[in-house]
Design brief:
This protein has helices at residues 3-19, 24-41, 47-50, 52-60, 64-80, 84-95, 102-118, 121-131, 133-139, 143-154, 164-172, 177-205, 222-248, 254-271, 277-310, 313-321, 327-342, 348-365, 370-383, 392-400, 407-430, 457-462. The protein starts with a helix and ends with a helix. It is built from 22 helices and no strands. 44% of the residues are buried.
């Protein structure tokens, strides 16, 4: 069988395996094994070629970015079980109680903090859904606004540093981790601002969706509320900044920064007397299960990519993009639209480990900045958690939402925030400077001329 047939057949076989409902990690490895045998039988590569897969797996355990993932996961799970999010929500809610829609603003701010702490969307959405959603519904918020705010705030874990998503993208696209962290800061802030502006206008255009303001006599003095909010939010935000600063300024590698975060979370839980052996055991078990699943998926995807390249699959991928108009712009628009729809069926890690290695070489040939592409894809994949009816964040929220709230309300509440996320994708394509610093023109040393002083013949004669 020729390489022109094997590559699309391998991709089609993987799609069929997914549609049949087999686990992705084992499906991708099984398809790679079958086509590895076909590649050897067809003379496309030698059996020794597949031994490179063991070297790739060994490399994962020496990769500092990937070693940081278990530590950041464990840090987030420790903080989740110490009740920090609940304390932040209560303190900030009281601080903003005199503002219309104050609790909705609070959920976005707490969601941003919780997202940065946990690093993955499902934990942030479920945590906010258990803590904030019942309180919002009791206060009289419209179910659409309440569920939309909670789901969208939880998905900020997709892009807010030190996000696990950004760590994985840095590894898959071979970009320095701190470059992606820096590039994601402004888009993250823009998205939070867009959420807050939507709540601001929604509270004024549809005042029936937010509860009336409480009597000022029932509120504590602003100074007391401010101090309580500072204490509740200061420690977790300070921990995030400590971790980012340790990596940003080169004081620690990403894995060492994760260790700093775990130590800080552990000490903070002990000081607050909310971390016991039972909670510690739960956090360790949850982190182990999640990281084990990621490793199986990473191993299978690495084997798939190796075999796919062995049968010249990258040539087939490149040939498909040769007919796209508008060069870089056409590629970016097509890729973002394709990944938006692929995310209906695959989650982020599956797309990152399987799809991105196939398109990265094409992006490099087109001269696309990989940091820009990484942040752009992170925002795009964030929409995969929000689009009805397939969004994982919506499924997670449905599992903790009261039965009285119909699923259709959750879907309708998610649509405005989904549109805001898509608007940010368009902004990043149109204005790469949101992610990238203005590049300086490189110096071509081949054309450098060093002027020499004029030759003084008289000086030579005097000597």
């Amino acid at each position: 069988m020729s390489a022109e047939v094997l590559a699309p057949a391998m991709f089609a076989a993987f799609a069929v395996a997914l549609l049949l409902g087999f686990p992705v990690a084992f499906s991708v490895a099984a398809v790679a094994a079958v086509f590895g045998v076909l590649g050897i039988a067809g003379g496309h590569f030698q059996p020794a070629f597949l031994l490179a897969g063991t070297l790739r797996i060994e490399g994962f355990f020496h990769n500092d970015n990937l070693l940081a993932i278990p530590l950041f996961v464990f840090m987030g799970l420790l903080l989740e079980r110490t009740g920090l999010a609940a304390d932040m929500l209560r303190a900030l809610d009281e601080l903003l109680a005199a503002v219309r829609g104050g609790m909705a603003y609070t959920v976005v701010l707490v969601g941003a903090s919780l997202s940065a702490l946990t690093g993955f969307v499902s934990a942030a959405v479920i945590g906010l859904g258990l803590i904030a959603l019942p309180a919002m519904l009791r206060q009289g918020y419209d179910a659409r606004l309440a569920t939309g705010v909670v789901a969208a705030s939880g998905t900020l874990a997709q892009i807010l540093p030190p996000s696990l998503v950004l760590i994985v993208l840095a590894e898959q696209l071979e970009v320095p981790l701190m470059d992606i962290f820096r590039g994601a800061m402004l888009p993250s802030a823009l998205l939070v601002l867009m959420y807050l502006l939507y709540i601001f206008f929604a509270a004024r255009w549809w005042p029936s969706r937010v509860p009336p303001l409480p009597s000022r006599e029932l509120l504590r003095p602003i100074g007391q509320r401010g101090r309580a909010a500072l204490v509740a939010a200061g420690f977790p935000i300070g921990l995030i900044l400590l971790v980012l600063a340790s990596v940003y300024f080169g004081w620690a590698t990403p894995s060492e920064g994760g260790a700093v975060g775990v130590t800080g979370a552990f000490v903070l839980g002990l000081v607050r007397r909310k971390l016991d052996l039972a909670r510690l055991r739960q956090a360790m078990m949850a982190a182990g299960v999640l990281c084990s699943g990621l490793l199986f998926l990473l191993f299978g995807a690495s084997f798939f990519t190796l075999v796919f390249r062995g049968i010249d699959g990258q040539v087939w991928i490149e040939s498909m993009f040769q007919h796209l108009p508008a060069g870089q712009l056409g590629f970016l628009v097509f890729i973002n639209i394709a990944i938006f729809f692929i995310a209906f069926f695959l989650d982020f890690f599956e797309i990152a480990f399987i799809v991105l290695p196939l398109i990265a070489p094409v992006a490099l040939k087109l001269g696309i900045d990989m940091t820009w592409l990484a942040v752009l894809l992170a925002v795009n994949l964030q929409t995969s958690f929000m689009h009805p009816p397939f969004g994982i964040a919506l499924y997670n929220l449905r599992s903790v939402t009261p039965v009285a709230v119909p699923t259709s309300q959750i879907y309708r509440g998610a649509i405005p925030f989904l549109l805001l996320q898509l608007a940010l994708v368009a902004l990043l394509i149109a204005f790469p400077s949101i992610v990238l610093k203005t590049p300086t023109a490189p110096v071509n040393i081949d054309n450098v001329e060093i002027p020499m002083p004029p030759k003084d013949d008289g000086a030579l004669e005097r000597k």
